[in-house]
Design brief:
By secondary structure, the protein is α+β, with helices and mostly antiparallel strands. 12% of the residues lie in helices and 28% in strands. It has 8 helices and 37 strands. It has a 9-stranded antiparallel sheet, with helices on one face. A hairpin with a 7-residue loop joins β17 (372-377) and β18 (385-392). The longest helix is centred in the N-terminal third of the chain and has 34 residues, at 29-62. The radius of gyration is 24 Å and the shape is globular. The two termini are 46 Å apart. The model is unreliable at 1-70, 695-699 and 702-708 (pLDDT under 50). The structure holds MU-OXO-diiron and calcium ion (2 copies). MU-OXO-diiron binds at residues 4, 163, 257, 272, 373, 393, 487.
């Protein structure tokens, strides 16, 4: 569990929405499934054509070195499982190696000095250094002319999110805090510049890659970068700040968790736990309207501010520390003389054009405002709308889908973020309801529809901008299903089915378990004392009628995370073994081959293992069976029917890597030839306490770290390669046709 998750959990406790009960009258699961499969058979030809056009090209080209493969080749895991462990190192499958690419503080400019990593590096130097807490990332292939080419595997721009910081390691003696206030503006500047995104050029060297330090594309985007606010919420009165009295700009991006990308070669960085950075103390309440107070409560805008950035005094520098103060301090009616509305300029999906280093990022309000984990694209098909799937990562939050109004025109692939203005500023936002019969519905979040209007309670909406700014409240109003913390999503390139991790939710109450979030295991008779969904699960769904048009889907649970020793009837429902058991799935990503990578960010299994990376060969929705799960609390029992995918097999799910102590394994990218896998090791040694940092602390990842000695642990992007130069994780095996 990261510091972010702890903040997220606190925000979750502020959730004001009522419980949603399943009120559908849809037909039974089996009926729906057979109907869907029939329809799929009918559509097989057209989907196959689409998949070949969009994905098959990359399969057959990028993986061309596997000579006998075809786009429909079978996958076979090509490694032996790694054992769980709590060692302070990276344990990787035999036959594989890893190398460092980019660590916190590394220079990304020829002008920057090497990182001292003792707290003495200046704040300003972080404009030319990698930020901290590497998270979501994407590989944009570069051809010899310096143009984006998604097939190109030798040279690329790698975009990397820097979600948060371990402030203990950024300063000589940790952060200086006196009487609850930050007294060093230099320290706070450094923290503000260590967040955001890095764009770095990388070049293959041998089997692995290295950073091109003097590349003209290298760039940091931080909490200080000027950004445009675009889409239906731009110019809303709720976005007016001292920084932009027209509500069309804001300064910076924050809490950049996971990511997405577009078919025109731009990067999407997603703002997750932004609310915790703002300061808004109880005395502000009397200056706010009832509607504002409902919105603040629903989004968790309350408290001192995670890093106390708003407390720096005097606030006279260009860094504008006061913009982290979300209270009314000015005298204007509209907020044009303070930052009371600044929170409404965060919580968005932000588009960055990595190929135009002078471009301003654009916040895309059409995709809604919430705790965005990431934005994962659906299949890209000419003449069809574009689709992104998104999760809001807090307890009991929702899964969303954005569908562009414009139909995909491949000529837009070269238009950069001008194409973004076409596809990402004008579309429909939906939220998911998972029904108890195994069906699901996409519920439209549009002003005037589904009860999202001026009569809605507790929050009366004014217009569509209001709906998008308060997407969580709109989703409450339409009866979306509260999930066990949606993290990453991924779309299977072979089947088009969508997967999403639900990391864990200890707040899931016994009487609130439902078909899609069915576990609350607390059975003292069987020695189980954890409440709620302690280990998480991975849900998946098959869309009806194509991703851009479907308003209905069929779902099941691909995997329930659990200890292999747990009760197979009610907890270890996917029959995990010692070779593939895991807890708290978070990162999720499909290789072009169709291999699914699963990353963990866990604090429930840490007695036995550090966080890990597993490889899975998934089947498809409906390959398992329905199952009644029994849950207990004291004398109370509640059973619920769910739908479990086929049990995990030794051939379909294996642990590939275990990280060092205290880290989260997150972020995934692949070179288009499938021969290099990029993974982030985030916040190793995070529990080390500020000024009390010593080498005796439990997690330092030091003796294994190249510089050794007294180095402080740093977040890192690593590159994994196979020693024989082969595909990472699984081979493609020719199948008879
Ligand atoms: Fe930043 Fe939900 O992980
Ligand atoms: Ca995450
Ligand atoms: Ca997490």
């Amino acid at each position: 569990m990261t510091v972010n998750e702890k903040i997220s959990d606190l925000q979750d406790l502020n959730s004001a929405s009522d419980s949603t009960e399943n009120f559908s009258n849809n037909p039974r699961f089996d009926t729906i499934l057979s109907a869907r499969l029939t329809r799929r058979s009918v559509l097989k030809g057209s989907f196959g054509v689409a998949a070949t056009a969009v994905l098959g090209g990359s399969l057959s080209t990028s993986y061309a070195a596997t000579k006998k493969s075809s786009p429909l080749a079978a996958l076979k895991l090509n490694f032996n499982a790694v054992a769980k462990n709590i060692e302070d190192k990276i344990t990787l499958a035999e036959g594989y190696s890893w190398s460092l690419l980019l660590q916190t503080g590394d220079p990304i400019s020829a002008n920057a000095s090497p990182y001292a990593n003792d707290g003495s590096d200046s704040a300003q130097s972080f404009t030319q250094r990698a930020g901290d807490h590497n998270d979501g990332m994407h590989f944009f292939g570069l051809d010899k002319k310096g143009q984006w080419n998604p097939q190109h595997a030798e040279r690329a721009l790698l975009c990397i999110n820097h979600e948060a910081i371990t402030s203990a390691f950024l300063h000589v003696n940790g952060p200086t805090i006196v009487d609850g206030k930050r007294t060093s503006d230099e320290e706070v500047k450094k923290e503000m510049l260590a967040h955001g995104v890095s764009v770095v050029e990388i070049q293959r060297k041998g089997k692995s890659f290295q950073v091109v330090r003097d590349s003209r594309w290298n760039r940091r985007i931080t909490t200080l970068t000027d950004m445009e606010i675009t889409g239906p919420a731009a110019r809303s009165p709720a976005l007016i700040t001292k920084y932009s009295v027209t509500g069309t700009r804001t300064r910076g991006t924050i809490a950049n968790c996971a990511n997405g990308h577009t078919p025109w070669g731009t990067y999407l960085t997603c703002e997750e736990n932004w609310a915790g950075f703002f300061r808004r103390m109880p005395e502000d309440d009397s200056k706010r309207s009832a509607r504002e107070l409902i919105a603040f409560k629903r989004y968790g805008v309350a408290g001192k501010g995670k890093e106390l950035w708003a407390t720096v005094q005097p606030d006279t520098s260009d860094f504008q520390f006061g913009r982290w103060n979300a209270a009314v301090v000015g005298s204007s009616e509209d907020g044009s003389d303070d930052f009371r509305n600044a929170v409404n300029t965060f919580g968005w999906v932000v588009e960055i054009d990595p190929f135009d280093p002078h471009s301003n990022p654009k916040k895309r309000t059409a995709l809604g405002r919430f705790a965005h984990e990431g934005a994962w694209p659906g299949p890209v098909i000419e003449g069809q709308p574009l689709v992104w799937y998104m999760g809001c990562d807090s307890r009991h939050e929702y899964i969303y889908k954005y569908v562009s109004n414009a139909k995909w025109d491949p000529r837009d692939a070269s238009r950069g973020s001008a194409a973004g203005d076409k596809y990402l500023n004008d579309g429909k936002l939906y939220v998911a309801r998972f029904n108890e019969d195994g069906s699901g519905n996409w519920l439209l979040l549009e002003f005037g529809h589904n009860g999202v209007d001026a009569n809605a309670t507790p929050y009366a909406f004014k217009d569509q901008a209001d709906v998008l700014i308060h997407a969580r409240l709109a989703a409450d109003a339409v009866g979306a299903t509260k999930m066990d913390r949606p993290e990453w999503g991924a779309v299977n390139p072979r089947t088009g089915e969508v997967y999403m991790t639900l990391t864990y939710n200890p707040s899931r109450a016994l009487d609130k378990v439902d078909a899609a979030n069915p576990r609350f295991y607390n059975d003292p008779k069987k020695g189980v004392a954890q409440k709620g969904n302690a280990n998480g699960h991975i849900i998946r769904w098959a869309e009806e009628q194509g991703h851009g048009h479907a308003l209905q889907f069929t779902w099941d649970v691909f995997l329930f995370a659990a200890r292999s020793t747990a009760d197979k009837e009610n907890i270890n429902l996917s029959a995990l073994t010692a070779d593939n058991d895991f807890s708290s799935p978070d990162g999720l990503w499909f290789a072009k081959s169709g291999l699914l990578w699963i990353e963990t960010d866990d604090s429930a299994y840490e007695d036995a293992t550090n966080c890990m990376l597993l490889a899975a060969i998934p089947g498809k929705v409906g390959d398992g069976a329905s199952k009644v799960v029994s849950n207990y609390e004291g004398e109370k029992e509640r059973s619920v029917k769910t739908y479990v995918g086929a049990p995990a097999e030794a051939t379909s799910l294996k642990r590939f890597l275990v990280g060092p102590v205290d880290c989260e394994i997150t972020g995934l990218a692949e070179s288009p030839d499938g021969r290099a896998l990029f993974v982030n090791v985030q916040h190793p040694g995070e529990t080390t306490k500020g000024k009390n940092f010593t080498l005796a602390d439990p997690s330092t990842w030091l003796s294994h770290w190249p510089q050794g000695g007294n180095a402080r642990p740093r977040s890192a992007t690593i590159v994994i390669t196979k020693d024989d130069g082969g595909l990472i994780g699984a081979d493609l095996i020719a199948t008879k046709t």
